[in-house]
Design a protein that fits this description.
The structure holds two protein chains of two kinds. Helix content of chain A is 24%, strand content 33%. By secondary structure, chain A is of the alpha+beta class. Chain A has five domains: 180 residues, P-loop containing nucleotide triphosphate hydrolases (Rossmann fold, 3-Layer(aba) Sandwich), CATH 3.40.50; 85 residues, Beta Barrel (Elongation Factor Tu (Ef-tu), domain 3), CATH 2.40.30; 72 residues, Alpha-Beta Plaits (2-Layer Sandwich); 107 residues, Alpha-Beta Plaits, CATH 3.30.70; 110 residues, Elongation factor 4, C-terminal domain (Alpha-Beta Plaits, 2-Layer Sandwich), CATH 3.30.70.2570. By secondary structure, chain B is of the alpha/beta class. Chain B folds into two domains: 257 residues, pyruvate-formate lyase- activating enzyme; 92 residues, Arc Repressor Mutant, subunit A. In chain B, strand 5, helix 3 and strand 6 form a beta-alpha-beta unit. The chains are: A alpha+beta, B alpha/beta. At the A-B interface, helix 13 of A face strand 8, helix 8, helix 9, strand 12 and helix 11 of B.
Chain lengths: 602, 402
């Protein structure tokens, strides 16, 4: 019997909120790795933002030790996956490190769009899948329906799916038994040439980049010279070990095992997720399949707010980049906002996470401008430009045509909402490819839609129209020509470049009007009237006026509660910090991000 | 500034809660009134002891509606105040009351007012709010214009000659003319003092929910401010001094107690949720009945928050509370407040108050001067004050100094 027989490498996959992290917590607790009292709620999601949103962005990997009823001691390597469509590539690489996956389905909700998306990713990696029904402690659990959905929609046999409650721990022990039985042990040759997959990495200020890896063949130990096959860079290994989830050094890592490698690597971009590690002196011939370069899908400008220092923003962005290979930035100069940075993200959530971290971890006041996708601008002279900043759009007379990115959107919904979703998608220039009834009551809609329409508030609009029941999955499809124009915004007759957007020509009028109305709401009243105008080129297509004057006085004195009054004034003062001054017009920070959220939820 | 001392006693009970009210108050019928009155008596005794039975310039019993307490309960409270503190000759002693809470029969009312006089109250503040029946009903008040007429008659008959009437304007759907009509009717009572509040829709009140659902909408700012300035003009014409943002008084009848708040004077807060400022420390009592009773039982003060003011806190509060007064704040008084804190920069004491003041608020100076150039703030060699236009955006100006 080989040592490989007692290893199980697996992931937990689930739709957002279906209880993946809670289950991970229970597994860690039940296999005795972490004392209960040391458990933070959801151990694996270790960033505050992740905990608050109930999602996982940065991965954690944990080695669990489990004694099964057959008396055997198993090593269970739980490899975490991010829980959002922005990070599909990262999910696929994590899954590639596994031999099986536990599919968590919320027994009160059933199968959702991301459940399916994740299952397909797992199938692509040829993983054995163990379906599990979660949230059985809730009265609203309907396991039979969920089981039927798993069988009908996904096509997996769910008749023996364990019924558990990750929250109370009910059924989790039985699930572990099943897991050892269903998920196969890894295969691999410990004496072959080293072939190890990087499925995650992060920067540690003492050890440099820590690589999370699954070894497929061969072995690696301290002192080895390793090579990253796609970037071609060599590093000397300073430490290898297991993730328990803290780091526990070991003599070596060998085929079938999961662990970490350190090698004084300066930034995570040098140890990209998906790359293959081999020995520089005795390399394997072929890297593992599936490596992709990170590609930014969404861009926005990040500028220091009033009183914030440019250098502070730069330092913070650099620190974030060291730890996030998918995030990139370059200096940008805006006439309205001054010096700042143009930043690229995998998607909107990724962008939110980065901007929130700037505020929380670095205590920075920044202004983020409207997100934009990357347009391919085909010039009359045949040149093709990638434009992700509307202000950089060349003179329209020089442009032959513009192409925009199109994504494939899969929306899963109860059939009651099909009509309102179709109306929403139509309003977002969506083309329905087809619609299928997954069950009598559940429908999947397949749309092709410009990414530009998805990045603003599509997800929110979808949720609000379906009372949160619809779910969304999307991926990039292709570039496609479109009639687009640059829409400019003027405040007090002054062009604010940071508010310019690229919009479809036919919608320019409506968008211009919508933006002006929104700005009218957002911009505080001044001592004078502020005209808000939308323009295409020289032509003004919409106008609103922020009326002058404002009541800003507290009539009551709160019976001597001076502290209460003081808090109000302090809040007001802090609010002002998050504004920007344009000539004599003060614009709050949210103007730059809220302005395109035009959906009224109807 | 800073050498007078008052007592505020909070009575958190009302017959019913008004639709706009975000103050700490509960329905009297279902609240532990007897237990509360007893606990307040103990808190008063304990404060008096702690502070060494000091002199007191003003007493203010507010709420809620203090007049919903039984006369005997109120008597016990005021009796204890007299034992625990030395009430100065001529001290201003105010009780808040709401129309229709002073007794249903004339005889009861007369006796109740008489009792208040015996307890030492010499100033009465009445929550009239409006003289229009529909509007009173809409506000959730329990009284009618007739109640007010009758109450005022008895109040005067019983010899209360220092009376404040509260009025509220910018009530949803109220016109400017409506407000001015209310004011005229209130002026007919010839009160010594009038407080005029612009209605603010506060979170968590029935009005906030009605606004959320679109049932009511706020009076537009322009109209609200227009009404406010009209009210100011009318009251000046009627012989009232406009001495604070929302307060107007005949000569000699400014509220002594409220002035403590705007002068950085000491005031001792007693009762549920009450705030105090004593010897440079701001404190706030718990707003939870159980906590309050427990603390009193265990011989502690029911204080939930306590903050030792820094020199900057002092000057900052002196400025933003002082700016509420039409006279504004002098550099001298502001620096005086600053110097009273232990962490004051003593070096500043050797400078001229004006110079020292602007050294502390160096960052605010440019914007303050900008407000001055727009006619909203007056800055001179003595200090600062808001203009009547400046009052409209007073929060923005005050927030420069926090």
């Amino acid at each position: 019997m080989s040592y490989l027989d007692n290893i199980r490498n697996f992931s937990i996959i689930a739709h957002i909120d279906h209880g993946k992290s809670t289950l991970a917590d229970r597994l860690i607790e039940m296999t005795g790795l972490v004392e209960s009292r040391d458990m933070k709620e959801q151990y694996l999601d270790n960033m505050d933002i992740e905990r608050e949103r109930g999602i996982t962005i940065k991965l954690q990997t944990t080695r669990l030790s489990y004694k099964a009823k057959n008396g055997e001691e198993y090593i269970l390597n739980l490899i975490d996956t991010p829980g959002h469509v922005d990070f599909n590539y990262e999910v696929s690489r994590s899954l590639a490190a596994c031999d099986g996956a536990v599919l968590v389905v919320d027994a009160t909700q059933g199968v959702e769009a991301q459940t399916l998306g994740n299952v397909y990713l797992a199938l692509d990696e040829d993983l054995e899948i163990l379906p599990v029904l979660n949230k059985m402690d809730l009265d609203s659990a309907r396991p039979d329906d969920a089981r039927a959905e798993i069988e009908d929609i996904i096509g997996l046999d769910a008749s023996e799916a364990p019924e558990i409650s990750a929250k109370t721990g009910q059924g989790v022990a039985e699930m572990l038994e099943k897991l050892v039985e269903v998920i196969p042990p890894p295969s691999g040759d410990p004496d072959g040439k080293l072939k190890a997959l990087i499925f995650d990495s992060y920067y540690d200020s003492y050890k440099g980049v820590v690589i999370y890896t699954r070894v497929f063949d061969g072995k690696v130990k301290r002192g080895d010279m390793i090579r990253m096959m796609n970037t071609g860079k060599n590093y000397e290994v300073t430490e290898v070990g297991y993730c328990i989830p803290g780091m526990l050094p070991s003599g070596e890592l060998k085929a079938g095992e999961v662990g970490y490698i350190c090698g004084s690597i300066k930034q995570v971009a040098d140890a990209r997720v998906g790359d293959t590690i081999t020995l520089a002196a005795d390399p394997t011939s072929e890297p593992l399949k599936g490596y992709k370069k990170a590609q930014s899908m969404v861009y926005c400008g990040i500028f220091p707010a009033e009183g914030e220092k440019y250098e502070n923003v730069k330092d913070a962005l650099e620190k974030l980049q060291v730890n996030d290979a998918a995030f990139n930035f370059e200096p940008e100069n805006s006439a309205a906002l001054g010096y700042g940075y143009r930043c690229g993200f995998l998607g909107l959530l990724h962008m939110d996470v980065i901007t929130e971290r700037l505020a929380r971890e670095f205590d920075l006041d920044v202004i983020t401008t409207l997100p934009s996708v990357v347009y391919k601008v085909v010039m009359k002279d045949g040149q093709i430009l990638d434009i992700q900043n509307p202000s950089n759009l060349p003179d329209p007379t020089l442009i032959a045509h513009i192409e925009e990115p199109i994504v494939k959107c899969d929306i899963m919904t109860p059939n009651d909402y099909v009509g309102s979703i179709m109306a929403l998608c139509q309003g977002r220039r969506g083309n329905m490819v087809h619609m299928e009834y997954l069950t009598e009551k559940r429908v999947q809609l397949h749309y092709e839609m410009p990414l530009n329409e998805v990045i603003y508030d599509f997800f929110d609009a979808l949720k609000s129209r379906t009372r949160g029941y619809a779910s969304l999955d999307y991926e990039f499809l292709r570039y496609q020509p479109a009639k687009l124009v640059k829409l400019d915004i003027l405040l007090n007759h002054e062009l604010i470049d940071a508010l310019s957007t690229i919009v479809p020509e036919e919608e320019a009028m409506a968008k211009g009007r919508g933006i002006c109305e929104k700005l009218k709401e957002i911009i505080p009243r001044h001592q004078f009237e502020v005209p808000v105008q939308a323009a295409i080129g020289q032509k003004i297509i919409a106008r609103e006026t922020v009326r002058a004057y404002r009541k800003d006085v507290l009539a009551k004195c709160y019976g001597g509660d001076v502290s209460r009054k003081k808090k109000l004034l302090e809040k007001q003062k802090a609010g002002k910090k998050r504004m920007r001054q344009f000539g004599t017009v003060t614009v709050p920070q949210e103007a730059f991000t809220e302005v395109l959220k035009l959906d009224d939820g109807k | 500034m800073g050498n007078r001392r008052g007592i505020y006693i909070h009575i958190p009970f009302c017959v019913r809660k008004c639709n706009y009210c975000a103050f700490l108050s509960f329905e009297a019928e279902t609240s532990p009134r007897t237990e509360y009155a007893e606990a307040v008596v103990k808190e008063i005794a304990r404060r008096g002891e702690e502070l060494g039975h000091p002199d007191i310039d003003t007493i203010y019993v507010g709420g809620g509606t203090p007049s919903v307490l039984d006369v005997s309960q109120m008597r016990d409270i005021m009796h204890e105040v007299g034992k625990a503190f030395r009430i100065k000759e001529g001290a201003e002693i105010t009780i808040e009351a709401n129309p229709a809470t002073l007794g249903r029969k004339d005889g009861v009312m007369l006796a109740k007012m008489q009792a208040y006089k015996y307890m030492g109250f010499n100033r009465l503040s009445m929550g009239v709010q409006s003289m229009d029946n529909d509007r009173l009903h809409f506000l959730g008040r329990i009284h009618t214009p007739e109640n007010i007429e009758r109450d005022m008659d008895i109040v005067r008959r019983k010899g209360f000659y220092n009376v404040n009437l509260d009025m509220m304007f910018s009530v949803p759907s109220e016109s400017k003319e409506d407000a001015m009509e209310d004011l005229e009717k209130i002026l007919r009572f010839d009160p010594e003092h009038i407080s005029c509040y612009s209605l603010q829709i506060e979170e968590g009140t029935p009005f906030a929910a009605m606004m959320e659902s679109g049932e009511i909408s706020e009076i537009p700012d322009e109209e609200d401010r227009d009404t406010y300035h009209k009210i100011c003009a009318r009251l000046r014409e009627a012989g009232y001094e406009h001495y604070e943002i929302s307060n107007f008084a005949k000569a000699g009848y400014r509220s002594q107690h409220n002035s403590l708040y705007w002068n950085m004077d000491d005031y001792i807060g007693i009762g549920l949720g009450a705030s105090g400022f004593v010897n440079g420390v701001r404190y706030k009592n718990t707003s939870d009945f159980d906590e309050y009773f427990k603390a009193i039982d265990e011989g502690r003060f029911p204080v939930e928050e306590e903050h030792v003011n820094t020199a900057f806190d002092n000057i900052s509060e002196a400025v933003f509370t002082g700016l509420r007064r039409v006279e504004g704040i002098t550099y001298e008084d502001a620096m005086d407040a600053y110097m009273r804190a232990k962490d004051a920069d003593l070096f500043l004491d050797s400078k001229k108050p004006e110079e020292a003041f602007w050294e502390i608020f160096e960052e605010a100076k440019e914007e303050a001067e900008d407000y001055a150039s727009r006619g909203l703030l007056m800055i001179d060699g003595n200090g600062l004050r808001l203009t009547e236009q400046g009052i409209d955006i007073s929060n923005s100006i005050m927030s420069l100094f926090v």
